[in-house]
Design the sequence.
């Protein structure tokens, strides 16, 4: 089981068709929960250090997202000129690669560090506009990346 996510803030200005401008500040959070399969191949470079690598397959089991938008300057659009809330759409499968090092403190106790890079899009973030606005939808793709540090006891 693994939980990955992101928290990001951004400010933007939205120009409406009729001499109207509004500035917004947003706060966003996305949490993705996965069941992962991580087979790891390990090469012992010395008595104390091992090099690890292997593929990773992750299956999405749940997601949660939240977003707030606050008007910081200008006037909120009315009628047909309303800026809609953004949304996150996730993909159910993520495939990536783990690469890392293990350092054996003793024969049975080790510190493990690895970097994960996802090859597939984890999802897309979209800021839709109403059909009367000329500007196309703003869409951003998201990939999973992670740094993992763990401690292990071998018995």
Sequence:
């Amino acid at each position: 089981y693994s939980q990955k996510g992101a928290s990001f803030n951004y400010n933007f200005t939205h120009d409406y068709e009729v001499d109207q401008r509004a500035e917004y500040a947003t706060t966003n959070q996305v949490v993705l929960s996965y069941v992962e399969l991580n087979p790891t191949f390990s090469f012992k470079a010395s008595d104390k250090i091992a090099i690890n690598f292997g593929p990773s397959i992750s299956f999405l089991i749940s997601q949660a997202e939240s977003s707030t938008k606050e008007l910081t300057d200008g006037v909120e659009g009315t009628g047909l000129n309303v800026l809609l809330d953004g949304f996150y759409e996730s993909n159910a499968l993520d495939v990536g690669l783990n690469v890392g090092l293990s350092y054996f403190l003793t024969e049975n106790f080790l510190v493990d560090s690895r970097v994960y890079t996802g090859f597939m899009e984890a999802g897309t973030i979209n800021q839709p506009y109403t059909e009367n606005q000329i500007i196309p939808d703003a869409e951003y793709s998201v990939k999973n990346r992670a740094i993992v540090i763990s401690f292990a006891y071998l018995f």
The CA atoms of residues 127 and 138 lie 5 Å apart. The two ends are 23 Å apart (CA to CA). The mean pLDDT is 84. DSSP finds no helices and eight strands in the chain.
